[in-house]
Amino acid sequence: MKKILTVTILLVLLLAACTIPLQSPSRENAKELDSELTLEVALYPYLPDPAAFRQAVRDAWTRVHPGVGLHFADWDCYVSDPDQALDVFVFDAIYLSSFVEEGYLLPIPEEKIQNREDLLPFAMEGCRSDGKLYALPQMLCTDFLYTRKDDSDLSGASDLLTLYDVLGDRKSRSVIPEENEGLLINLSDVLLTKSMMYLDALMDEQQVYTDYSRLPSVSELSAPVLERFVDIWKMGGNEQVSYWPEDNDAFVRARWFAEGKGRAYIGYSEAMNAMGEYADDVILRRFSYGTGHDIPLFYTDVVGIRSDISVEKKELAFELANLLVSEEVLTKMSLPWEDGDSPQYLLTSRRSVYDALCGDYPIYGLLKEIVDSPDNHVFRIGAHGREFITEMEAVLGDQIAKAVSSDEPTEVHRVGGRQGICTEEGN
User: Fold this and answer.
1) 337, β-bridge pairs
2) Partners of 303 in the beta sheet?
3) pLDDT at residue 15 is higher than 50
4) Residues involved in catalysis
5) Is residue 426 part of a domain?
6) What DSSP string runs through 214-227?
7) How many domains does the chain have?
8) Pick from 265, 273, 256: which is nearest to 347 by CA?
9) What pLDDT score does 427 carry?
10) Do both 266 and 124 map to the same domain?
11) pLDDT in tens, 283-300
12) Could you tell me if residue 229 is inside a domain?
């Protein structure tokens, strides 16, 4: 019944989204509608402070083009393809192949890229298709394993099997684990995480990178990958991994970890903002979901331009795309919101941002080493990826439910998308 209700709710929300037009004029956008020319822009919606990001973009744009307005529209790449009214839009590169095939994206000439040598090479490469550049990289995101500096038994842990050998099964059943007990990980959200984590783990298991131009079968799942998922579930405990707070605090587990709860934590770099000064007491690193070395994957938010953009807007769109990935804008987004706060610890596509911040916030020096590795890859999936995700979510959901209820090691827990990992309890 829970599954039926969940699917029903999602269908209602998706149908509603299809009938809602782009963001209606707001006080923030109203003055732009009086401009002789206005660009329709959609930023990535899942940011720590979307309003601050919009203001940073608007301030920088107004200095160079005071007579050209920006209208910020609501659009979510995880829900639908780009609206035909958008001129410039930010989306997750997992959809780049689909958007190229559907003809949504305008190729970006190499000579239009500003300060190109400052952009991370792997991120730029991940924006190409058949040799053409279809977007500019902006933000990065990846799973990190966090342990405490004084926990010598976990200092060398770099894969899930090693982590499970140390942590074992969690003993307590409460939502919040005991001190130094178990793995903190969010498996509670709705879309993407289970299918995307499966693809990530499959690369680690096979020890080779792929852009998944040919997606794997949903009917023949990898038993070793599913076993690793079961290990995650056992280390975290059902109550904790399936928990989502009523206040929608995406980093509540990071706060628990900073309070001494849990022994290890898996999350994004932004989680260190929630940890505050405790971030200085932890070790973070990329890790392998398999038993071999890590194939480092990064979700990448990229800036694209509408393929049939009007002639009068085209050059302006190139300028705006560059501004959205500029050092000025990305640095502002990474700084503390208020004096005395921690920085946002966002991963950006420009080396200069890390250089600008590491003097005051040394962790950015480590983050630069991580993102500047030549082994890194942009997480891509093939065309028709949206359909694949929908089907894989359902298949993995069944596998997880069986694993949770039967505790058989070759069946898996349920993992959801970029917003977290989700689970439904067995019937």
Assistant:
1) none
2) 90, 136
3) no
4) 141, 270
5) no
6) SPPPSSS--HHHHH
7) 2
8) 273
9) 34
10) no
11) 999 999 988 899 999 999
12) yes
User: pTM of the entire structure?
Assistant: 0.86
308 and 238 in one domain? no
The residue type of 417 is G
Please check whether residue 53 is in contact with residue 346, taking contact to mean a CB–CB distance below 8 angstroms. no
Contact 347, 364 (CB under 8 A): no
Longest alpha-carbon distance in the chain:
65
The least confident of 43-47, 87-91, 186-190, 202-206 is: 186-190
Stated as kind and residue range, the H or E segment containing 334 is: helix 327-334
> Hey, is 280 helix, strand or coil?
helix
Question: Left (φ > 0), alpha (ψ -120 to 50) or beta: where does 111 sit?
Answer: alpha
Span 363-370, average pLDDT:
98
CB 118 within 8 A of CB 285: no
Tokens of 92: 């997750």
Q: 4 to each of 10, 301, 387, 416, how far by Cα in Å?
A: 10, 32, 19, 17
What mean pLDDT, rounded, does the chain reach? 86
Task: Look at residues 120, 107, 114, 34 and name the one whose alpha carbon lies nearest to residue 70.
Answer: 34
Do 247 and 229 share a structural domain? yes
- Residue 175 in any domain: the answer is yes
Residue 37: is its pLDDT beyond 70? yes
Copy the structure tokens of residue 158.
């770099």
258 has a pLDDT exceeding 90: yes
Provide the residue range defining the domain that includes 134. Answer: 2-141+298-378
Specify the CATH number for the domain of residue 388.
3.40.190.10
> Which amino acid, 319?
E
DSSP tag of 341? S
